[in-house]
Each structure stands twice: as C-alpha cells, then as structure tokens.
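Format notes (please read before filing issues)

Several people have asked whether sequences and structure tokens are stored in separate files. They are not. Every record keeps both together, in the order shown below: the sequence lines, then the token lines. Line labels are part of the format and must not be stripped during preprocessing.
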Amino acid sequence: MLQSISKSYELIFQLLHMPSHARGKQEKDFIVRFLCSIDKLLFGNKSSLESLADTIQHTSFRNGQTLFSSGSRITSWYILLSGSVYVDGKLHHPIKSLGRPISEEDRYYSSDCYCLEQCDFLVIDLKTACQQSSQLSSMDSSITLGLAEDSVRL
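Then the structure lines:
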C-alpha cells in the first residue's frame, strides 16, 4: 500500500512539473483523480477540479525554508503532501491546506510559515486559477466550503 502511494506521488509530481499547456487529457484526468483522492479536496464540481488541474504545480521546500511571511501578499494556496510546517504557533502535518484566503478580505498572510523538514506541496497560483476559471464564483465557493474547516487561516 505504501509503495503504491509513493509511486502515485512520483507520477503526480512528474505531471505537475510539466508545463500546463503540455498536459493532455489523460494527464489532466489523472491529476483530477489524484485531487479527488485527497480527502480534504473532495469539494466542488468536476469543472472546478479540471480548472485546478490546469494550474496546479508541485514544489519542494527544504528544512528551515520559509513558505510565506507575515505581511506578504497572498498569491498561492499550498497543500502540504509530505513533511511538517510551523504556522501561527502550531505544527501541521499532511494533508493540510495552507495560505488559501478564507474570504475576499484576506489579502495578506498574518503569520509566518516555516518548513520543519523537507516538504512537498501542491501549489495553486490563485490569480492564474481565477483567470482560467470561467465560473470563478462557483469554484471559489466550492473551495471555501470544502476546506474552510481544515485550512490554516492566515
């Protein structure tokens, strides 16, 4: 089982490192299935997930790196897949949503986020995701409804 999860992560990381314009239907479908498999992301409709499949990327941070800083503009939504981070006096482990604004008034991070070990993240550039979504309000509300309880509010 653990080996199967590891291979799935390896494949998804490869796909997410491809430029989004180079991803075909098969790759996008795999990304959508992967997003659906993450319990915290069982939200919204299929078009919302397909829109995310066009914009989502993978990134890694080393131990001690800062993911974001208090007072900096919120530009990305992070989903912690591996490792651990320290935010607002609390330790967080996978799978955790970080840095996603809860409301339209949230424009700046209110705390720092530090990686406590090697971390892998799914990263959604919020501006690009909103521009590519023809149904911005339905995508945004489904994301908010699906993750509001488990997101680290920043």
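For reference, the curators noted about this record: The longest strand covers residues 76-82. Residues 134-151 have pLDDT under 50 and may be disordered.
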